[in-house]
Amino acid sequence: MFAQAPPTPNYKWFSCISSTVFAALCLLPMFSPAGYAQTPQNRPIKIGVVQRFGTKATDKLTLKALPGDSLTLRYKTPQGIETKTAASVKLEIAPKPLASPLVEERVVLSSHRSFESAEDSANQWRAQGIEVEIAQPLRWQVWAKRDVYNSPLVRRWLLQSLQERGNKTAFLDSKVLKQIPQAFWVLNGFRFNRNELDVTAGKNVIEVLEQTTQEATATEPEKAIQQTRRYGGSLRLQKNAYGTYTLVNEVLTETYLRGVVPHEIGAFSPYAAIVAQTILARTYALRNLRRFAVDNYELCADVNCQVYQGLTEVYPQSDKAIAQTSGLVLTYQNQLVDALYSASSGGVTASFNDVWQGAERPYLRSIVDSPNNIWDLSKQSLSDENNFRRFMTLKTGFNEEKEQTFRWREPASLTAIGGFLKQYLQKKQHPLANFKTVTQVEVVERSPAGRVLKMKVQTDLGPIDIDKDEIRNAFYPPISTLFYLEPIYNPDKTLNGYAFVGGGFGHGVGMSQTGSYNLANLGWNGSQILGFYFPGTQVVPLSDNVTFWRE
Fold it and tell me: Which stretches make up the Sporulation stage II protein D amidase enhancer LytB N-terminal domain (predicted)?
């Protein structure tokens, strides 16, 4: 996912772990290619590896056993559970005509770029007495709970009452269906139409060939995609909340990490950075098991959770780190931390509330991403525009100073800015989504760590405010919210657009992955790296005393 650091010396593994957990680690076995055993500390996780199978009628999935192995297929029939064996099975989609049109609708209370903001919004709706659920049809959304607001009359009453109270974010997402996607497969000349299928393999590894079509974007046309992955554990095809299907991989936590760690931190990164990433990835997974409750699985396989590629590409260094930190998690006051990380901080990390709404996390506070004391945020707040611009001129002394994304400058015309903003607002069904021109863009508010908290866009229909993490969805150029704007003028002195001048890549909260490379190369161990980015936390073995998550 991110640029990989060059190979580094093979550190002694115990130098990467704090002394408080050394004794426990001495008793842990090294990783065996045969896999891990299920234990209370190594629970199964359900990951949606193909989240929306059936969005296109041309979608196909081919599941294959390894050479010399076979698949076992289990599915329901009116007579009970049927079991078949095969070397492979191809899943396809056929449109199923409905006897009469079906109205599918839900009340969308709010729409968000991230789960973190969606969850905070859900809590606010619950505080108002409205029962909700969090979903991710594309963007994260908070829905009025469908089995509570389960009739057209009740849904319209709810929407009207919200509008009368001044709410402008809620809308009715309604469509009339004349057909629905139906998954099927052919085996021994017989076609099976089923909404659920469980698949296992004798060797506990299944290969998945996915063939689909990627939607066109503002910068790329529609294109066919074909990719092959290998997954440990079992697979299950099941219906989701959006009328399509999800292929769910159920796999033990430690095996799951084999498909995450090298693809998040880089397989050839400094070993101490890999150790830090491993503990974070384990902590993140266990804390976030609630994300896809609406779809009956727990995590996704992309950047909306953690990048997970199964057993397709595994590496000795990350396998070693997983085995040697088995069961270790990062906690704050006996609770799993919100184990956030991003590619690059741009020289200063963001606090949780710099990016998302919700309760502040004491351990996710802004720090200057440097092993040296080169800037004092308590005395020179980056909320001051002059201080911020001076900070952005600094180029040395930072953990990330050699990285390409440490500092960047991206120009954009008013036309381009307007085009991306319009797409963003249309997805949210914003009342000003049909504006024609953008005349001005400005940063209205900045956090003490320099993150843009609010932007205002002047359009022909009126001003539009964009807040926090939504900024990276609404505008194409900035790859973080650590930036300022430079006007770009035409020869006749009229405004052409703006250059976004900034630093970092991603939300900037928690650990900087590229920053961890430098700390590891300086000799810091994994525990020290985590302590730097998550002050006041502890690396501990997972136990019954550790709370996964608390509302």
Answer: 243-332
